[in-house]
Amino acid sequence: MKGRPRPSHVAIMCDGNRRWARENGFTDVTHGHRVGAKKIVEVVGWCEEQGIDTVTVYLLSTENLGRGADELELLMEIIGDVSDEIASAKGDFRLRVIGRAELLPQELCDRLSEAEERTRDNKGVRVNIAVGYGGRQEVVDAVRELIGNLAGEGVSAAEIPDRITVDSLTEHLYTSGQPDPDLVIRTSGEQRLSGFLLWQSAYSEIWFTETYWPAFRRMDFLRALRDFSTRQRRFGK
User: Fold this and answer.
1) How many domains is the chain built from?
2) What does the alpha-carbon distance between residue 60 and residue 48 come to, in Å, rounded to a whole number?
3) How confident is the model over 193-204, as pLDDT tens digits?
4) Which of 15, 128, 180, 182 is catalytic?
5) Of these residues, 53, 64, 149, 220, which one is catalytic?
6) Which residue in 97, 135, 146, 221 is a FRET match for 181, CA 20 to 30 A apart?
């Protein structure tokens, strides 16, 4: 990859855990979640090797919160474990949780907050984990926060519409202060964004693979980077 264009921000949709478990003969499909969780820190390490500054990993959507109680309980435990592993990794990673914390159990919120605090001053790869996340809701939350701030500053209702711009709204997204993803990777063969970083991915390159997330290999990751390096990005021009 030397000398080739490479992304500075990679976003990953870790899809296919349950299908991987079924196709590999596991009667308990939650085994796929456990195996997939172990892959996350490994992939962040691959990103570090390639000089990628920011990684965003989609772990739990707002729609996923409608799954069965037993599966959700396990997912919450796994997400907490993943945050601990990122915070304890040798890579000096900086953790940031994006999504609606109020939708999560308090115990998980506490674990996530603690992991964020432990990595606050780290200088390595920035790792965003999207939990209780919905792309449409993120935009709604950003608009509400922006309007609330403007009203609090004494801006009149008549003036507020003119103060809402692409830049001002971007400052209120969950990923405020970070670059948009250059590359979005989705595993499992599904070819849609499913609400992931809808605003931020407007000009992202998107790479799909049939490989399920637990089986995602370093070779697959390098293929995604190689494909990215051949694309001519126009940013809508």
Assistant:
1) 1
2) 23
3) 999 999 999 999
4) 15
5) 64
6) 146
